[in-house]
Design a protein that fits this description.
The protein has helices spanning 3-19, 86-91, 118-133, 150-161, 183-188, 207-216, 237-241, 245-256, and strands at 42-47, 53-59, 66-72, 95-99, 138-148, 167-171, 176-177, 180-181, 194-200, 222-228. With 260 residues, the chain is of the alpha/beta class. It has one domain: Alpha/Beta hydrolase fold, catalytic domain (Rossmann fold, 3-Layer(aba) Sandwich), CATH 3.40.50.1820. α6 links the parallel β9 (194-200) and β10 (222-228). α1 (3-19) crosses α8 and α3 crosses α4. The protein is globular and about 40 Å long. Residues 1-36 have low confidence and may be disordered.
């Protein structure tokens, strides 16, 4: 079966499965903590490679160990961008970490942020993921990277160079977002990686960019794209416009966010 037929089948199966769970958020597999209601956050500081404190909020599961998601905001926002969507992940039984990227929000407040280039931001994401894996409620390697716009680019870049990262979800990624490039990262992804990309038709991170990223991907990785029409927006706003999207994201995580 060739690549295009395989991917079409994957899309059809995922859409059908997601549609069947629109009225109930998927829970984690047997053996992990039960889905929780809204959980209180813990403010955390994660040390970056240059000593900067990356400030975030951690939402741990209750009653055992479970996989985790790291949520990365876009370039003009803060961790608060993701807060309306955190309950969807915690109720599905995931540990959740949201962090202000360097120079934004509480990270670097009152001190030089040392914004640096994309490589320094890549190291920040790796530090966040490593911190998550060390938490007592996190089940080892299964830490999925989920980003929006600029955060989507950093999620792709970091997962490509992190051997322990198996799953990335990118909301309106681009090939080149203000110098943060992703094509070579997509090419470098190995067969144990799974990538779900979502975008609308228009905008600097629209369907054209996503089709280029799709074309650059290796035949060995699990990849799916979802492209919306002209009336749709971008980034986390897509969750508000399409009630099907969050169940699809959770289904993708439940299928691919594991250690092997």
């Amino acid at each position: 079966m060739n690549r295009s037929i395989t991917k079409v089948c994957c899309i059809i199966l995922l859409v059908v499965a997601a549609t069947s769970v629109l009225t109930s958020i998927p829970t984690r597999a047997e053996g992990t903590p039960a889905a929780t209601q809204d959980v209180p956050s813990q403010k955390v500081k994660i040390k970056a490679s240059d000593g900067l404190d990356l400030v975030g909020l951690f939402y741990p599961v209750v009653g055992g160990k479970a996989p985790a998601v790291l949520l990365l905001h876009d370039g003009v926002s803060t961790k608060e961008q993701w807060l309306p969507y955190v309950p969807s992940f915690t109720r599905a039984g995931y540990n959740v970490l949201v962090v202000d990227q360097r120079g934004m929000g509480e990270t670097g407040l009152g001190t030089p942020a040392k914004s640096g280039g994309p490589e320094l931001h890549d190291q920040d994401v790796l530090a966040m993921a490593a911190w998550l894996r060390q938490q007592s409620t996190v089940d080892g390697n299964p830490v999925a990277l989920i980003g929006t716009r600029l955060g989507a680019n950093y999620a792709i870049r970091a997962c490509a160079i992190d051997d322990q990262c198996h799953t990335v979800i990118a909301l309106t990624p681009s090939t080149d977002f203000f110098g943060v490039k992703t094509v070579e990262s997509i090419k470098a992804m190995t067969k144990d990686k799974s990538l779900f990309m979502i975008a609308g038709q228009i905008g600097e991170s629209g369907a054209i960019s996503m089709k280029q990223l799709y074309a650059a991907a290796s035949n060995n990785i699990n990849i799916m794209t979802r492209i919306y029409g002209l009336d749709f927006k971008f980034g986390t706003d897509l969750f508000d416009e399409d009630p099907n999207l969050m169940p699809m994201v959770l289904l993708w995580l439940n299928t691919y966010n594991h250690s092997s």
